[in-house]
User: Fold this.
Amino acid sequence: MLIDLASLNTMQKQAWLQHAVAPRPIAFVSTQDAEGNVNLSPFSFFNLFSSNPPILVFSPSRRARDGSTKHTLENIREVPECVVHICDYAMVQQMSLSSCEYGKGVNEFIKAGFDAEPATKVRVPMVKQARVKMECTVRDIISLGEEGGAGQLVLAEVLCMHVDESILNAEGNMIDQTKTDWVARMGGDWYSRATRESMFQVPKPNTQLGIGIDQLPQSIKNSRILTGNHLGMLANVHQFPEVDPAFEHDHVKQIVQYYSLNPEEMEAELHKLAAQLLDNGAITEAWQVLLSGEPLV
Ligand SMILES: Cc1cc2nc3c(=O)[nH]c(=O)nc-3n(C[C@H](O)[C@H](O)[C@H](O)COP(=O)(O)O)c2cc1C
Assistant:
């Protein structure tokens, strides 16, 4: 289905984009106006865009309904500071409540039942319950237009972070991702939750280049069994593996003997075994299984 954005109204554009660009992390942002009235609102048009300088960007867009600006943006124009908190599952319902359109000057810390605590480098208070709090000064605001739905990009420089000890690793020197329980926004009313079960690791390719899928033998590249993820893992080795004469695997022996007269079936069985090994992260073994088959061409 081809979606031509030019043919959609603002709400439709927003819905298609938000359902596709998901899950999005949630910046839970506190600000205050020149009189010291405090505001707290969530923004999922948000991410980290630079580490040096450390820059977060979030976008309090113009309201789709009437093009009016949000209190967060108005406050930042008056006091160019904010605290960006990362939203976890324990806060999600109260965070959502804080997104109600309360009138200007209404303190959403109170409405949503969060405790305020003083920040160390900015005037704006922080949400005590949040497990990551980033004190920021606003470097720039980039307006993408005057129409409803137009993003207003706030470029916030992180001055310092407060990290709750409950999410640190055993050494206490980094955040343990499995302890964070961050939530993220998807399309419509859907959210996702970063639980241990929903997480997996992909070893980072670095300056040592992976051989690339184009270097895989045709029989592997065109496998009916191996998926794109399997091929990606195989192609991330730094040099084409050689047959290891010391490699022994009972199942491989059985397959090679049993299917000796049926090379196609043999290949399929070896690919199935390699797929299982790859699913368990055993890339070297998987390669050896694949190399045990027919000559690879
Ligand atoms: C999880 C979540 C994410 C949101 N993300 C955004 C966003 O990225 N941009 C935006 O303009 N509004 C977003 N909203 C809606 C604002 O939070 C809402 O308009 C809020 O009332 C703005 O408050 P303010 O006018 O006090 O700044 C989001 C709401 C929720 C619940």
